[in-house]
Amino acid sequence: MSLLEVRDLTKHFPIKTGVLKRQTGTVYAVDGVSFSVEKGETLGLVGESGCGKSTAGRSILRLIEATAGEVTFEGIDVMRASRADMQKLRRDMQVIFQDPYASLNPRMRVRDIVGESLKIHKVGTPAERKKRVFELLETVGLSAEHAERYPHEFSGGQRQRIGIARALALNPKLIICDEPVSALDVSIRAQVINLLEDLQDEFDLTYVFIAHDLSVVKHISDRVAVMYLGKIVEISDSAVLYDRPQHPYTEALLSAVPIPDPHTERARRRIILEGDVPSPANPPSGCVFHPRCPRSQPVCAEAMPRLVSTGGDAGERHEVACYFPARFIGGERTVTEEPFAEARPEAPAGS
Fold first, then answer.
1. DSSP string, 219-273
2. Distance between CA atoms of 218 and 189, rounded to whole angstroms?
3. How distant, in Å, are the alpha carbons of 160, 228, 274, 296, 306 from that of 289?
4. CA distance 95 to 116
5. Is the distance from CB of 234 to CB of 245 less than 8 angstroms?
6. Helix, strand, coil: what percent of the chain each, to 5?
7. Phi and psi (nearest 5°) for 291?
8. Rounded CA gap, 126 and 277, in Å?
9. Distance between CA atoms of 13 and 66, rounded to whole angstroms?
10. 141, 276, 319, 333: most buried, per Cβ within 10 A?
11. Distance (Å, rounded) from C-alpha 294 to C-alpha 272?
């Protein structure tokens, strides 16, 4: 059984206008997202800004309430858990926020920030909690003397280490990493990524790693799910996705990732998508990507394709939501002229 199961997760935000604040529209931030995460695995969740990946992560943790869908953690229904049950679950489900400057209370000392969850959950005596805070700071590369300082006395990378120590305080099983390195300098990013990998091995952690930097995701993830306008359009083992992407949006994203080889970089073809990302308040009909897709056909505007396997090599876990995916048979890349039959949505019962 998977550690985390997400099925048809949906989060819609109402648009309210006027003096009476009447609802005049809806923002479809997350629209039917499904995936699972195995114990000890890292699932990368990638996509452009505004695609809904951070909203999905916060909905899983119930930091915001989902509109619909199911989230199961170790067999427990998170969406229907009571307040008391959620407090117990939060010991095993933690988060590292994106902005290390906004996620730490500037009026609290580091010892209080890291030890706050220990105090809330009544873990140990004050002396034991203090010792635990010192241990956590040393685990993330800081020292015990930093415990008496305030967040403004640290650099961005050090602040993010404090955030990581806070997430580790209760020995969680799952950590949602919400773009934890996007606000950091490039050299510091590598240090934080390596730290997260070391901590995963040491404490047997499971990550959902949210990011828009595909090179970072490739380095840390076992599997990668690609989101576009509130939906997952492709999900696969990391090595397979980067080597043999099937969805045209994934291909475009990967073509924008710089390669540290000038000869290879000059020789490869960059895919430039036309148009802008549609508004999540007014998503297009059918496949959400079809207005910008170079393979778009009339069928693409009729209904959103299902996320299905196109049949790769034995043992491959590769699913794509596309009527005209790039398929790799015997190492050869082909794109069929006929719509991929398995991607067609199932007809409603009784129709």
1. HH-SEEEEEETTEEEEEEEHHHHHHS--SHHHHHHHHTS--S-HHHHHHSPPPPP
2. 14
3. 34, 7, 11, 9, 13
4. 14
5. yes
6. 35, 25, 45
7. -65, -20
8. 51
9. 10
10. 319
11. 10
Task: Give 134-182 pLDDT, tens digit per residue.
Answer: 999 999 999 999 999 999 999 999 999 999 999 999 999 999 999 999 8
Tokens of 38: 């195995």
Which tokens hold the place of 56?
């999905």
| Residue 43, token pair as written in the block | 């699932």
Say if residues 161 and 167 touch (Cβ distance below 8 Å).
no
pLDDT tens digits, residue range 8-51? 999 999 999 988 889 999 999 999 999 999 999 999 999 988 89
pTM: 0.91
Q: Is the dihedral of CA 170, 171, 177, 181 positive or negative?
A: positive
79 Cβ neighbours under 8 A, 6+ residues apart: 62, 66, 69, 70, 71
Please say whether the beta carbons of 163 and 157 come within 8 A.
no
Q: Which residues of 94-111 are buried (b: 16+ CB within 10 A; e: fewer)?
A: bbbbbbbeebbeeeeebb
